[in-house]
């Protein structure tokens, strides 16, 4: 009974304490930063200077630094979650950063354009997948990482300035210029549209961050990243073209855009006209094929362009059919080349040897066993982006040995008055030198460099 009586005497004491603890826990669950603003703080370091202080690994900030910045993100639609994205200026920012914190509905306290002060002492600065972050810390596999600032501590570090939110002025940039733009800053890109194959797709898959491919009117590409928890993830992508305002987020070296809501996309204009990037022409020809008798490493193929206008070789390639094979043995892609009127295109089997022997650098190195490395009894074809044979040397399926298209230890030179390609081999268009002299060719092996004329039809 005594024991029971002792326990009974504790009940009135414990009950209020338990209620107090429960109340404290519930209060902490809902604790948010004060809605009061501050006007007396003076920044003593810039965001750019903070970023420049990073030394390659997550580090605690020990100095009494105060930094000012402007909010550019919003979690109102759920596409941002427990993060606050900041840049150092309303316009033309020099730096941006991501603050990790446990704070839902932060847009009610920190709307876009809101000036904030950050008391940095005790926070950790780190970098993950190319993105600078501020927050608390945790350890993962022995490595210190930036984590979320606990909600009860947010008000100690992130303070709202008394100034009313200002209108952000995102920098208008083109896709190729994004790499020079600071990460985690607000940008605007004009004339964007979702790829044709995505027009029936939604912004994201449920509960999964999803990338959707965007193109500009010059077919340059960037991706939009959308959270599968956002309010609009199930909505169908807009089918038109127009500007997008977004946070530039180059995660892991991949340029990404993250919008705050659907309203950041204004894709209502007519889609871009189809961009034609592949062209054909019969003015690009084989002009010389070389297999020097004294140096097989000095082999090359020369093309000549007789057209009037520049020609993009996007999709063009040279194929080699070795000996009597009817299957392509090797190929050289010419897609990165644009040729101008009267230009030669020199393709060496070995660039270093070519430059040493002929005194000039080739445009392309084909490599060993490539079309530029033929030993004179193979067949070469020039193919346009549409799979059409534009020009040819030899007859596919016929070994060149002892024929009118053998240039072993020699040279095949296109006559100077031939400026149009021919998809059917015509020996009368060529002067062929070799070590046999068969079928109307010249039995006269050629030596490099004196018997060859790379870059000239003379």
Automatic annotation (TrEMBL):
Residues 436-447 have a biased composition (Polar residues). Residues 270-397 form the LTD domain. It comes from the Bacteria. Residues 432-458 are annotated as: Disordered. Pfam families: DUF5689, LTD. This is Lamin tail domain-containing protein. It comes from Muriicola jejuensis.
């Amino acid at each position: 009974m005594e024991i029971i009586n002792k326990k009974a005497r504790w009940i009135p004491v414990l009950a209020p304490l338990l209620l107090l603890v429960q109340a404290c826990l519930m209060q902490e669950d809902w604790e948010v930063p004060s809605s009061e603003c501050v006007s007396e703080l003076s920044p003593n370091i810039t965001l750019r200077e903070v970023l420049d202080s990073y030394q390659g690994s997550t580090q605690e900030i020990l100095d009494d630094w105060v930094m000012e910045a402007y909010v550019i993100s919003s979690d109102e639609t759920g596409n941002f979650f427990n993060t606050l994205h900041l840049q150092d200026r309303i316009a033309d920012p020099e730096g941006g950063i991501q603050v990790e914190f446990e704070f839902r509905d932060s847009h009610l306290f920190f709307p876009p354009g809101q000036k904030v002060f950050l008391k940095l002492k005790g926070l950790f600065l780190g970098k993950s997948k190319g993105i600078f972050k501020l927050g608390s810390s945790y350890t993962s596999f022995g490595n210190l990482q930036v984590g979320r600032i606990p909600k009860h501590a947010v008000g100690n570090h992130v303070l709202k300035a008394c100034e009313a939110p200002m209108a952000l002025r995102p920098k208008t940039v083109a896709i190729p210029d994004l790499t020079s733009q600071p990460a985690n800053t607000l940008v605007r890109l004009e004339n964007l549209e979702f790829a044709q194959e995505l027009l029936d797709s939604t912004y994201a898959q449920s509960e999964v961050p999803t990338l959707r491919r965007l193109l500009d009117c010059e077919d340059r590409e960037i991706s939009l990243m959308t959270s599968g928890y956002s309010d609009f993830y199930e909505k169908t992508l807009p089918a038109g073209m127009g500007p997008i305002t977004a946070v530039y987020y180059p995660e892991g070296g991949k340029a990404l855009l993250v919008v705050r809501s659907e309203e950041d996309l204004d894709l209502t204009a007519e889609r871009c006209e189809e961009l034609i990037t592949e062209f054909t022409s019969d003015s690009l020809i084989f002009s010389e094929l070389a297999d020097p008798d004294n140096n097989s490493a000095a082999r090359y193929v020369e093309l000549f362009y007789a057209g009037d206008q520049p020609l993009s070789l996007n999709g063009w390639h040279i194929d080699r059919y070795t000996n009597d094979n009817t299957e392509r043995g090797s190929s050289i892609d010419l897609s990165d080349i644009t040729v101008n009127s009267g230009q030669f295109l020199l393709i060496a089997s070995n660039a270093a040897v070519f430059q040493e022997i002929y005194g000039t650098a080739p445009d392309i190195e084909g490599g060993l066993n490539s079309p530029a490395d033929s030993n004179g009894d193979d067949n070469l074809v020039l193919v346009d982006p549409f799979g059409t044979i534009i020009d040819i040397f030899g007859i596919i399926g016929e070994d060149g040995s002892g024929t009118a298209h053998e240039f072993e230890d020699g040279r095949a030179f296109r006559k100077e008055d031939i400026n149009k390609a021919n998809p059917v081999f015509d020996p009368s268009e060529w002067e062929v030198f070799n070590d046999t002299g068969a079928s109307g060719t010249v039995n006269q092996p050629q030596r490099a460099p004196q018997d060859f004329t790379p870059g000239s039809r003379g």
